[in-house]
Amino acid sequence: MDEKELLRQLAKDIRISVRDEDMPSLCQVYHTFLEHIACLEKIETEGVEPLVFPFDVEIHELREDEVDEVYDIDDLLKNAKNVKDNQILVPKVVE
Amino acid sequence: MKVYSIEQWHDGLLNGTIDVSLYYQQLQKEALFQQKRLNALTTICFQTPPQDLIFNSLLAGVPYVLKDNICTYQIPTTASSRMLKDFIPVYDAHVVQRLKQENACLIGKASMDELSMGSTNMTAITGPVYNPWDTKRIAGGSSGGSASLVASGLVPFALGTDTGDSIRRPAGFCGVIGMKPTWGLISRYGIIPYAASLDAVGVLTRSVQDLSIVLEKIAGYDFHDMTSSRLSIPHYRQNLSLDISNVKVAIIQNIVDILEDDRIKTLFQNCVSLLKKAGATVHNITFSQTYLEAIFPVYQIIANSEATSHHASLDGIKYGFQSQGQNLEEMIVHTRSQGFHPNIQQRFILGSLALKQENQEKMFKKAQKVRRLIVEDIQKILKTYDIVMIPNGDGIAPLIEEAKSQSHTLVDDFLIIANLAGLPSLTLPCGFVDDMPVAVNLMGRCFDEQTVLNCAYTLESMMPYCRQYAKGERNDV
Amino acid sequence: MYEAVIGIEVHCELKTKSKMFSMAPVTFGCPPNTQVHVIDMAMPGTLPAVNKKAVEMAIRVCHALHMDIDDLLRFDRKNYYYADLPKGFQITQYYHPIGKNGYLDIEVEGETFKIPIERVHLEEDTAKMTHNDHYTLIDYNRAGIPLIEIVTKPQLHTSQQVVAYLEALRLILIYTDVSDAVMAEGSMRCDVNISLRQSHDSILGEKVEIKNLNSLVNIQKAIDYEIERQTDLLQKKLPIARQTRRFDEKTQTTVVMREKQSLLDYRYYPEVNILPVRLDKQWIQVIQKQLPQLPEQRRQRYQMQYHLSLQDTMMLLSHKDLSDFYDQVVSIYPHYQTICHWLIGDVRAYLRQYQKKVSELLLVQDFAELMHMLEMKKISSKQTKQILEFMILEKKSPYVLMERYHIQQVSDEQLLSQYIEEVLHDYPQQVADYYAGKHQICSFFVGQVMKKTKGQANPQKTNELLKCLLEKRKV
Q1: Cβ(B211)–Cβ(B453) below 8 Å
Q2: Residue B51 has what pLDDT?
Q3: Do B77 and C44 touch (CB under 8 A)?
């Protein structure tokens, strides 16, 4: 796949459309990214477990199943741009 | 307006030498003046000057600012992004609740790089933040507003967040103390994230003592954050000690060697001498060059990947900026394409590339594996040594026009190790070059904040930079 | 001939008090957006906190399905953009499901099949969207309700097996007390993956997924239709497209929802806001020990020990509260058949009428006494009905009610004989019929005696005396 097409598709996956004028700089950071990947490829990681957290740690407690006061509906919806019948209104969803 | 340390403020309240309402009137004027000079605030909130203060806490009545990615009930929290320009949280971050309990007084929200993704504080939607020591220069980022305001003397402390060096870099540029504590020491509930496995809330102050006071008040377990530690929190301030004779310090020689500015090298060597003079054991060691070069790539890949997923919630539906569209899909695409700066979009796109199922093994997971190798290496050093000391960067705060083209150096990159490994890391001013502050950085073992604080406290006591600030020339007083 | 290869994914809402990751209440049918925490709406800065009860419930189901339980609890992110997904990702367990490698035995036409279950994992429900012609409304009450997903290996082959599996699984979800598992209300949802292969050929055809199936009847129809459709395509040598389809009730067929040319890439990766949780092994064992007796064990007991018919057994089992109540009553008086008969008959009718649980209508001890009196022939079944109604209305013991309403059986022979004589006197034609050999007319006479005694005559005694007197008259 063409590089620009690849980047556009990736952008589309995360709901972003790349403007033409931003493409050159996107390609540039993409190349830097590939250099980063190449840098890591030089390091042997056979048998190394990925480190997800800064250190390996396990916890033992979970939250008890208790109910807290619910948030006020007006508070919850006040940041939404369109509200109808106490629900958030969005343009029609198309499959 | 007089500038106080937290203890001086508290004493002043107790013995009645401070008139709180008068002080807050002056503070409000000062805030407006500093805002004009530094552009470091996104919101000023003086609606309710503190009244009927109960002085039971050292922080009672103490004015402070928060980086604008820390959620505050009914006070805008924008993360300096167009996407959240009009976002008003309906809940307080855990740290905000804690500070409210202490009766500390929030006077404003501090500017930052958009969504914490930057190190210059030039990417805020409200424009660049200026350095109080020289307003032609940047404050650094991403917690630039927090650092700048503490350095201006406006507030004795500010909270910031640190994902790569976002507290420590601006602290160094602005000549204040900045600490990123151990990952999990402070609850991240209510913090608009950058990358959860690297993010930490931290404190910026003008003295180690003030930093210890604030840290103690906001650290500790919070059931809202499953990654927050249940360890009990020591009395950092009470335990502050100038006796560091048992402390073993490692200097990363190959980092010091690459410093280009001899003046910075000299200031660093001075700190080494001071530590020795205070009785600490100091050894020079080297860090694997291969791993050193891998720090930045590992960081970028992990941070961008986590960020793209954290910010998938920013779609214009529930809160924040919303654009138009014929259907929902189109509305979301328009919202995200216009709401984020193109540079942020690029980071998300790369993150999405590294997370792609077919790429994960050689990109995201590869970065996580190398992260483990780097972390194991630094942990090995910290088995022998209590503290790792490095220069806090190779240079002073750049001029605004230089900042755009500046790239990172391996010296800068070493700060990121603290995020990769979750270590406590504190930046302390250690001198001036061209009238601009220069700093040194101390890292310690996870959850051993005290040793880091004690070393900093000792160094601070032997240098004249404690409680320094640059408030600028005011012509209205 | 082709063989269908079917895999089933079931999503089940857990009836915890609070949500999977927030402290908002889990409720149904509340006004929109009244049961929502900032966490459920993915407000910036919020973090998940795992609900212990949801984990416990998942473990219960795992035990019931004989799964291997992973005592290191881990979560992952499933990243995709959809308006009902507030965070832009769903927290689920992709890499390390809480349960692996289980099975469930089912019975189809007397034959037993072991259905292998690949995984059970915990996740969270999405928001509810209501679509209109020009816009869509979003309600977050459902967002964050705990779900478990139960995935079989693709080793089912007929729609009958699927229905039997879902029925058995539904009972397990109910008996482990984790869910109401009502398909029509969406607390249990089912997706079916189906592909065909040449019987002795191991190469599978393209997989078709059928979604949004809301009843067992529709599932059976959808599968049968789909097998027919795919068979038809294969016979015509036409390709089967990889699709997601749904069952259309109007046409009784499956229709395309979306084409799946390329699989969606969910970019799964470990959830960084939840540290791995080491579950206490003892806790896991305690949960197993406290597991209520499961439907399969009860079924065996009812049929083998109590000699209930298969039909009666299934009727009891499909109503857990009745089955629980039954077990308690028979532990007092072991009149297995009678008690079952009354519970699934009259009592169940009352439950439907009042929309209540049996424990809300009747006390175990009272009902047991009532059944015992009936069994000991101290009261007639008509009287039993009468007393049962009073018990439900007045919540009193049968003894108290019998006294209050003067209900008792007339067994006194002299008194009964007197009534019988009166009846025979009143109906000479019917008596003549009897002598002509129409012996079934007896029940008519008994009925008349009952009428005269307001239902209090002992029917058995009456019958005996009646025959005696009729024979006497004949002579």
Answers
A1: yes
A2: 73
A3: yes
Out of A57, A66, A95, whose CB is closest to C17? A66
Q: Which of C320, C444, C341, C330 is nearest to C385 (CA)?
A: C341
With beta carbons under 8 A apart, name residues in chain B contacting C79. 309, 312, 355
Residue with token string 């002795």: C200
- Positive or negative, the Cα torsion across B306, C266, B342, A83? negative
> How distant is the Cα of C297 from the closest Cα of chain B, in angstroms?
39
Cite the active site residues of B. 67, 142, 166
Calculate mean pLDDT across residues C44-65.
98
Residues of B in contact with A93 (CB under 8 A): 327-329
C31 and chain A in contact, CB less than 8 A: yes
Distance CA C15, CA C54 (A): 8
Interchain contact A9–C (C-beta under 8 A)? no
C-alpha distances out from residue B361 to B77, B286, C85, Å: 36, 30, 27
Chains that touch A (3 or more CB pairs under 8 A): B, C
Residues in a beta bridge with C195? C5
Q: What is the pLDDT of residues C244-285, one digit of tens each?
A: 999 998 999 999 988 775 678 999 999 999 999 999 999 999
Neighbours of B182 (CB within 10 A): 25
Structure tokens, C265? 């890439």
Is there a contact between B282 and B276 (Cβ–Cβ < 8 Å)?
Answer: yes
Residue-wise DSSP of B142-163: SSHHHHHHHHTTS-SEEEEEES
Strands (E), C242-366: 243-248, 253-259, 269-270, 277-278
pLDDT of C375 > 80? The answer is: yes
Lowest-confidence segment of A43-47, B152-156, C53-57, C444-448 by average pLDDT = C444-448
Interchain proximity B364–C269, CB inside 8 Å: yes
Spell out the domains of chain C, with CATH numbers in brackets: 2-278 (no CATH), 293-404 (no CATH), 413-474 (1.10.10.410)
Distance CA C199, CA B144 (A): 69
Whether the CB-CB separation of C103 and C65 falls below 8 Å is answered with yes
Exposure string for C163-200, b = 16+ CB within 10 A, e = fewer: bbbbbbbbbbbbbbebbebebeeebbbbbbbbbbeeee
- Local confidence pLDDT in tens for the 95 residues of chain A: 799 999 999 999 999 999 999 999 999 999 999 999 999 999 999 999 999 999 999 999 999 999 997 899 999 999 999 999 999 999 988 75
CA distance C443 to B408: 103
* DSSP one-letter string for C96-134: S-SEEEEEEEEEETTEEEEEEEEEEEEEEPPPEEEE-SS
Percent of chain C with pLDDT over 90: 65
| Cβ neighbours of B200 in A, within 8 Å | none
CA distances from B457 to B157, B322, B439 (A): 17, 48, 14
Provide the ipTM.
0.97
- 3-class DSSP state of C428: helix
- Residues with Cβ within 8 Å of C34's Cβ and at least 6 positions away in sequence, in order, are A70, A73, A86, C141
Q: Does the distance separating the beta carbons of B90 and C38 come in below 8 Å?
A: yes
pLDDT at B477 over 70: no
Write down the H helix ranges in C120-235. Answer: 159-175, 216-235
Q: What is the pLDDT of residue C403?
A: 79
Kind of pairing, strands B130-131 and B248-252? unpaired
Q: What is the DSSP letter of A49?
A: P
Burial B283-307 (b: 16+ CB within 10 A, else e): eeeebeeebbebbbbbbbbbbbbbb
Closest to B38 (Cα-Cα) out of B105, B107, B106, B110 = B110
The pTM of this model reads 0.91
Measuring CA to CA, how many Å separate B13 from each of B18, B54, B269, B386, C379?
Answer: 5, 10, 41, 38, 88
DSSP readout, C38-64?
TTTTT-TT-----BHHHHHHHHHHHHH
Rg over CA atoms, chain A: 23
